[in-house]
């Protein structure tokens, strides 16, 4: 009897608000794959730290929070705020936090839920660390100001009226610098990733571009 084929993994990485989630959800639906937003795990740990009034930069506390983390902890939490994004990138610098969250991500990729034949994972280090053998790796990016504008519009639509565009831009710049500059699993395209610059593309165009790249790489 031949071995069952390994799960089909599509790795999607890139900086904040580049459109990773929008593209990944669509790819997962199209190919019938599971989807994991790995940023949600880091945001979850960041949220736990803030909700306990702990400093996200304290490595012992952050490691303990990551080890004990369960998705149930954030069932009713708003993790999509700039404060939680900042805390997420502060806990994400710490190697023991990354190690604790890596296990969950690798398991998800190795055995996608509901018997699905594979998964799309999005984050910062999927193609480089979490799933280095993924047959398809995309790195989604866009100009910083365009990304900040997208995030600002999203936050405004959710009623964060007091946020200025400049604050969101500054926040994204700092988070990008922290994510790209850290020692452990820095944000960067894998050597074999396809870079998709979404600055002037709408979501349909990004999807179409990704499909072309993926179909070229998948065994027919
Ligand atoms: N190609 C695009 N053009 C314009 N807006 C986009 C595009 N892709 C995503 N968006 C919007 O930008 C915001 C951030 O997208 P999202 O997919 O959440 O990014 P990420 O997962 O990289 O943080 C969302 O409001 C989304 O609707
Ligand atoms: N695989 C991942 C995913 C997220 N992260 C961290 O988690 C933060 C929040 O990730 P996110 O994907 O929710 O961020 P957005 O792109 O949605 O703004 C990032 O800024 C990173 O610091 C990471 O280090 N590695």
Automatic annotation (TrEMBL):
Family annotation (InterPro entries): Cytidylate_kin, Cytidylate_kinase_dom, P-loop_NTPase
Keywords: ATP-binding, Cytoplasm, Kinase, Nucleotide-binding, Transferase
Documented EC number(s): 2.7.4.25
Domain Cytidylate kinase per the UniProt entry, residue ranges: 10-215
SUPFAM superfamilies: P-loop containing nucleoside triphosphate hydrolases
Listed transmembrane segments: none
Example GO biological process: pyrimidine nucleotide metabolic process
Any one of the GO CC terms: cytoplasm
A GO term, aspect molecular function: ATP binding
Source domain of life: Bacteria
Compartments where located: Cytoplasm
Primary location group: cytoplasm
Catalytic activity: CMP + ATP = CDP + ADP; dCMP + ATP = dCDP + ADP
Annotated positions binding ATP: 14-22
Gene3D superfamilies xref list: P-loop containing nucleotide triphosphate hydrolases
Family: Belongs to the cytidylate kinase family. Type 1 subfamily.
Protein name according to UniProt: Cytidylate kinase
Organism: Parvularcula bermudensis (strain ATCC BAA-594 / HTCC2503 / KCTC 12087)
Gene designation: cmk
């Amino acid at each position: 009897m031949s071995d069952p084929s390994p799960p089909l993994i599509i790795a999607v990485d890139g900086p904040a608000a580049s459109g990773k989630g929008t593209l990944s959800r669509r790819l997962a639906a199209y190919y019938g794959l599971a989807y994991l937003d790995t940023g949600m795990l880091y945001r979850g740990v960041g949220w736990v730290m803030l909700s306990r009034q702990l400093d996200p930069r304290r490595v012992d506390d952050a490691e303990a929070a990551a080890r004990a983390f369960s998705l149930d902890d954030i069932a009713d939490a708003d993790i999509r705020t700039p404060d939680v994004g900042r805390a997420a990138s502060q806990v994400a610098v710490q190697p023991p936090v990354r190690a604790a969250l890596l296990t969950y991500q690798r398991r998800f990729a190795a055995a996608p839920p509901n018997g699905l034949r594979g998964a799309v994972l999005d984050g910062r280090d999927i193609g480089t660390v979490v799933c280095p053998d993924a047959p398809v790796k995309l790195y989604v990016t866009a100009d910083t100001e365009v990304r900040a504008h997208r995030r600002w519009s999203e936050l405004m639509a959710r009623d964060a009226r007091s946020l200025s565009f400049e604050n969101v831009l500054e926040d994204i710049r700092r988070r990008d610098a922290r994510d790209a500059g850290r020692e452990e699993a820095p944000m960067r395209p894998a050597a074999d990733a396809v870079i998709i610059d979404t600055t002037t593309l709408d979501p349909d165009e990004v999807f179409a571009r990704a499909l072309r790249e993926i179909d070229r790489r998948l065994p027919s």
